[in-house]
Amino acid sequence: MIKYLRKLYDWTMQWARTKQAPYALFCIAFIESSFFPIPPDVLLIAMVVANKNKWLKSALICTAGSVIGALFGYLIGWGLYETVGKLIVGTYHLEAVVEMIGKRYAENAFLTIFTAAFTPIPYKVITITAGLFKISLSILVVASIIGRAGRFFLVAACLRLFGQKIADSIEKYFNIFSIIFVLLLLGGFLVLKFHFK
């Protein structure tokens, strides 16, 4: 696993220095909000480390892609849940969570969406269920912009300030960071399963 992540990290760092990197970042942020498992933070981090002066632009691209992707996830839940939506939810084995998310929406839809947008909780399930339960689009968009922008601009700003030190630390302690990354990814799914019960 760590060997695979090392190759993926090296490939991402090389990709981050190309002219196509902003387009790739937008696409990854877009699809992560509806069905892709890997968060866009990975490429965002690499891009800011590669070019600290463009940290604002990179964070903005990431936020825009993610929020537009949230609208696509909403569309899946709203009109395509029985086909595409169920397939995505089933892939992540979160069928039992869907009804519980609906109850959370009834309590506080804004907070539910914002929490998932800002944390490692799998955002795609939140956007799809927002469409399924017909949550107001304005709530989805505002909560997504605040949550996603808060997360991505915070990550980019930290890298702008401490980028080289962080990059050196990643290189030096790559195995440890790889384990932390996997734990955060798995932890997001576990939080979704148990927090929404």
Q: How would you characterize this protein structure?
A:
With 197 residues, this protein is mainly α. It has one domain (2-195). Helix content is 84%, strand content 0%. It is built from 9 helices and no strands. It has helices spanning 2-16, 21-32, 41-50, 55-79, 81-91, 95-118, 123-132, 137-172, 174-195. Helix 4 (55-79) packs across helix 7 and helix 6 crosses helix 7. The longest helix is centred in the last third of the chain and has 36 residues, at 137-172. The model has no long low-confidence stretch (mean pLDDT 81).
Tags for this model:
single chain, 197 residues, mainly alpha, 9 helices, 84% helix, 0% strand, elongated
In short:
Helix content is about 85%, strand content about 0%. It is built from 9 helices and no strands.
Per DSSP, the total helix count is 9
Mind summarizing the main beta sheet? none
Number of strands: 0
Radius of gyration over all CA atoms, rounded: 17 Å
Helix content: over 70%
Write the layout of secondary structure elements.
Layout: H1 2-16, H2 21-32, H3 41-50, H4 55-79, H5 81-91, H6 95-118, H7 123-132, H8 137-172, H9 174-195
